[in-house]
């Protein structure tokens, strides 16, 4: 029997959720809803979703719905996630889990009080096959002792003063834009590979464009604003930043994030330098990984299921030479979540491979520590 799903919020990211659900093979999207009924109708028609539901409450009250995907803007995450849990539905939430750690902490507590609910947060980069393989090789000691980790996450969709969407509004996004939006992905990926948490940060956040031109009305992420009636908006959140980090296993590192780097579209890259060898991965070339050695030739690894660890093979579906990328990692994430539900597992009994509420809550605490560090110009220990 197939699990039935609903999508709340039909903006930019919703088609990736729909595709990933269908690719599991044992789940289907029954309905969707959005604050903009026209957008919901348009996306439902494009993706052949049978029903469009007028309100969130109707979705929550539908006894056929097993899983709800929350794809709404940040400021709605806490309230909607809370309603979904209380409605006894499984929950797959976009990140960040909430706008701040007070909100996310309340959700962690609520989920703990409802142990039958399986909930995940969409940190999908950790589910790329080569990231999983790096994690397994790190755990097995193939790379040696980790010493340094460094990298970037660079985009350019906020390069111009006329680039604007709801993430620029502090009331809607929370106290951080770039660090919470893409820095969170870098930190989750690094922590996943190292099997270790970041515990200290020294951050510097930058707002390169303090006044932006906003069109009247909503604009999807990565979409161009239409020329016309624009208004000046004072920007209180960053569009770039850099952070030095220390992990609880004493590994040191640093990373930079930017949404104003011309030509960079979605460049999350990460390098780990260990006592035996180094490894470098760039998600824009997700099927390849560079391995560096001191006493033998460096080489490039091309994803090949035959050469991956047994644990990783379940996350790679194509033969070597058939590239797997962002949507495949997204599918791996959603499928791992749905498998967990389908198999009747509970979060309190088994640690899943997908990101939990607890992990997403900790990422928010990291972002808040980076903000504090940037303001005080000092190292901050994450509480």
Q: Shape, please?
A: globular
> Do you know the CATH architecture of the largest domain?
2-Layer Sandwich
CATH superfamily of the largest domain: Dihydrodipicolinate Reductase, domain 2
CATH class of the largest domain: Alpha Beta
Task: Give the low-pLDDT segments.
Answer: none
User: What string, H for helix and E for strand, traces the elements in order?
Assistant: EHEHEHEHEHEHEHHEEEEEEEEEHHE
For the largest beta-sheet, the strand count, sense and barrel status come to: 9 strands, mixed
What order do the strands of the largest sheet run in, or round the barrel if closed? 16-15-14-13-7-12-11-8-17
**What class, by secondary structure content?**
alpha/beta
Gyration radius, rounded: 21 Å
Question: What does it look like?
Answer:
The protein has 383 residues and is an alpha/beta fold. It has 2 domains: 3-124 and 350-355, 3-Layer(aba) Sandwich (Rossmann fold); 126-322 and 362-376, Dihydrodipicolinate Reductase, domain 2 (2-Layer Sandwich), CATH 3.30.360.10. It has 10 helices and 17 strands. Strands 16-15-14-13-7-12-11-8-17 form a 9-stranded mixed β-sheet. A 6-stranded parallel β-sheet has the order 3-2-1-4-5-6, with helices on both faces. The protein has a two-stranded antiparallel ribbon with strand order 9-10. The mean pLDDT is 95.
